């Protein structure tokens, strides 16, 4: 944890600025210096291109190209019977936007169900995880002893593969499972129904709330102690300290965590697929729908669903960046400015008090 | 000491106990259940009695093919991690150390790719791999996995490189190293802890992958461990073999839990590097 507390020197090293600042320096020696510098910049550009291009190439092949392929594929229908030969034809017929317009007609029910399930899971799990995660972070921030034990145990749900945690919760939510024994009540969790939704939410919150807690804890640890001391001297209550100091100051860390969690929840697949099963209406998400269509060789509709999910994720990410802008992008420029500004006010007060 | 003060003193400890129990209880249940015999698998006692390794024996019986699945997971996650690290090392160095045009844009794009829904690349790749006969091959799982491990590795390594003082390479370069030599002889050895941390996080992400492995394979011998466990079948058709599933789940998870216990400090540093700043 100590490593993260070190403020990184993100400012690029600029040779020459120190020299220029020196007063009374004759301008003559600067000219020959400028020449190699510009040449170095050109060399740097070439080196950078060389170093960055393999990554960009791989990402083009595995992300950009499939995305474009999906867009193209979504305009084709499933292979049908060739009327001339009576065999299944080799080519897929071009159907234009039919795969998309179908969503508003017959195939639509399944799509909208998956759409609302995805949205429901995202909203409910991320809100619960945020609240529980913040509570966990506050507890961990308080307790100094046994911190490494807590840290290790918090990483356990994160490290368990989602597929395995799906099986684990399926076992817990089994009809004769421990959940029903503890409740003293028979709930058919993994049957297709509203309780299945709840089961998915519980399992997902268990796995990821600690992770949000961890990120928030990292944010808490860079808040200087004096800020709280000052607030206490000013007579702020614990609740006021939380709302006015803690929350605004961990906001950047929290926003990053929430954005990542939202985008993760939007593409949820493993957990409902294993915990409840494929083609279960109550928990089918957009990812499951698209995968199911693809595994049934209906690539056209599958791609259309994938494209729509892609757009959904993109819009949510865009909305986040638009609404919260400076706090998110880069993690360097905007965040820092925001932080120093927010800290600046109480700091000034510290000085006033101690003066 | 007043009662309230005493309460205040003990409250954090109570909170910690609750957090630890919340995180570990389900995992503990998996462990305990895996150690029960078939007859008392539905027992709800907190300790397995009598202790039975029956489930583990059945998981590793040759008929189950689970050893092969573990090997597949190791190969896929291992190669994915190695390739992602190698490429990310160069890119992250450029991102942290060099000034060039569109740097911010490129970094944003790289990080953004990790947020794309995996299913929207799996569907077209599934069709492509079917056409070129890649289904049931390691590369059909490794290549798509890089779509999320590579951005993760780039992001992590960039943060680590940025934490290292610039002066190190400048000193090396003054001493006559080229930029490349300074990178190889000074930066890489010094960044070893960061590279190692990135490797662990990337490996765990690749090891836990399910959707790609599920879609790209249909032969049991090529399935990774996560997929294989989800397809375990019981003795009779309608029976879910929870015992062996729990045992296999423990086997798949234990290496990760050990890693987490040993390297928790570094893993936390790596995971929170982006968020804390």
UniProtKB/TrEMBL annotation, chain A:
It is found in: Cell membrane. The lineage of its organism: Bacteria, Bacillati, Actinomycetota, Actinomycetes, Kitasatosporales. Residues 1-42 are annotated as: Disordered. It is a multi-pass membrane protein. SUPFAM superfamilies: MetI-like (SSF161098). The chain crosses the membrane at residues 47-68, 120-140, 152-172, 198-220, 241-260, 302-321. Keywords: Cell membrane, Membrane, Sugar transport, Transmembrane, Transmembrane helix, Transport. Residues 115-320 form the ABC transmembrane type-1 domain. GO terms for cellular component: plasma membrane. Its main location: membrane. One of its GO terms (biological process) is transmembrane transport. InterPro entries: MetI-like, MetI-like_sf. Pfam families: BPD_transp_1. It comes from Streptomyces caelestis. This is Multiple sugar transport system permease protein. Belongs to the binding-protein-dependent transport system permease family.
Automatic annotation (TrEMBL), chain B:
PROSITE patterns: ABC_TM1. GO terms for cellular component: plasma membrane. Residues 70-263 form the ABC transmembrane type-1 domain. Its main location: membrane. Gene3D superfamilies: MetI-like. The chain crosses the membrane at residues 12-31, 69-93, 105-126, 138-157, 186-207, 242-263. Keywords: Cell membrane, Membrane, Sugar transport, Transmembrane, Transmembrane helix, Transport. Pfam families: BPD_transp_1. SUPFAM superfamilies: MetI-like. Belongs to the binding-protein-dependent transport system permease family. This is Multiple sugar transport system permease protein. The lineage of its organism: Bacteria, Bacillati, Actinomycetota, Actinomycetes, Kitasatosporales.
């Amino acid at each position: 944890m100590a490593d993260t507390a070190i403020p990184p020197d993100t400012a690029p090293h600029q040779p020459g600025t120190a020299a220029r600042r020196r007063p009374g320096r004759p301008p003559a020696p600067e000219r020959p210096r400028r020449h190699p510098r510009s040449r170095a910049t050109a060399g740097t550009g070439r080196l950078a291109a060389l170093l960055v291009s393999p990554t960009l190439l791989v990402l083009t092949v595995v992300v950009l190209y499939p995305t474009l392929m999906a867009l193209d594929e979504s305009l084709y229908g499933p292979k049908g019977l060739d009327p001339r030969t009576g065999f299944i034809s080799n080519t897929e017929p071009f159907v234009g936007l039919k795969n998309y317009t179908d969503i508003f007609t017959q195939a639509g029910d399944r799509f909208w169900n998956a759409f609302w399930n995805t949205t429901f899971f995202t909203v409910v799990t991320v809100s619960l995880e945020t609240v529980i995660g913040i509570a966990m972070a506050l507890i961990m921030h308080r307790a100094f002893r046994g911190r490494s034990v807590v840290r290790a145990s918090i990483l356990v749900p994160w490290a368990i593969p989602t597929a395995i945690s799906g099986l684990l919760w399926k076992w817990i939510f089994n009809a004769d499972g421990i959940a029903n024994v503890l409740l003293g009540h028979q709930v058919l969790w993994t049957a297709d129904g509203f309780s299945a939704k709840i089961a998915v939410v519980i399992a997902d919150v268990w796995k990821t709330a600690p992770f949000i807690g961890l990120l928030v804890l990292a944010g808490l640890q860079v808040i200087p102690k004096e800020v709280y001391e000052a607030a206490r001297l000013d007579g702020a209550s614990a609740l006021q300290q939380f709302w006015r100091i803690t929350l605004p100051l961990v906001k950047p860390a929290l926003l990053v965590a929430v954005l990542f969690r939202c985008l993760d929840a939007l593409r949820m697949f493993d957990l409902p697929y294993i915990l409840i099963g494929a083609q279960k209406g109550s928990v089918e998400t957009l990812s499951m729908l698209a995968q199911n269509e693809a595994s049934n060789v209906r690539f056209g509709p599958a791609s259309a669903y994938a494209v729509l999910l892609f757009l959904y994720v993109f819009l949510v990410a865009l909305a986040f960046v638009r609404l919260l802008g400076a706090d998110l992008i880069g993690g360097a420029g905007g965040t820092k400015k925001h932080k120093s500004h927010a800290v600046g006010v109480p700091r000034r007060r510290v000085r006033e008090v101690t003066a | 000491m007043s009662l309230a003060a005493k309460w205040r003193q003990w409250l954090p400890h109570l909170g910690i106990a609750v957090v630890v129990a919340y995180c570990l209880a389900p995992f503990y249940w998996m462990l305990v259940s895996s150690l029960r015999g078939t007859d008392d698998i539905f027992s709800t006692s907190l300790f397995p009695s009598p202790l039975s390794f029956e489930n583990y024996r059945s998981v590793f019986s040759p008929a189950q093919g689970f050893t092969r699945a573990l090997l597949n997971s190791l190969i896929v996650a291992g190669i994915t991690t190695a390739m992602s690290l190698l490429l990310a090392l160069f890119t992250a160095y450029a991102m942290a150390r060099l000034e060039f045009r569109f740097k911010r844009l490129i970094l944003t794009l790289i990080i953004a790719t990790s947020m794309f829904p995996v299913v929207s690349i799996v569907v077209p790749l599934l069709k492509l791999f079917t056409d070129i006969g890649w289904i049931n091959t390691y590369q059909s799982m490794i290549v798509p996995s890089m779509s999320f491990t590579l951005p993760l590795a780039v992001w992590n390594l960039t943060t680590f490189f940025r934490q290292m003082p610039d002066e190190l390479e400048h000193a090396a370069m003054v001493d006559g190293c080229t930029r490349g030599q300074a990178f190889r002889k000074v930066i890489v050895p010094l960044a070893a802890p960061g590279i190692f941390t990135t490797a662990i996080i990337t490996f765990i992400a690749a090891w836990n992958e399910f959707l790609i492995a599920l879609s790209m394979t249909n032969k049991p011998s090529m399935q990774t461990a996560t997929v294989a466990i989800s397809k375990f079948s019981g003795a009779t058709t309608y029976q879910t073999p929870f015992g062996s599933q729990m045992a296999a789940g423990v086997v798949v998870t234990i290496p990760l839990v050990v890693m987490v216990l040993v390297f928790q400090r570094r893993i936390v540093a790596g995971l929170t590097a982006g968020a804390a700043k």
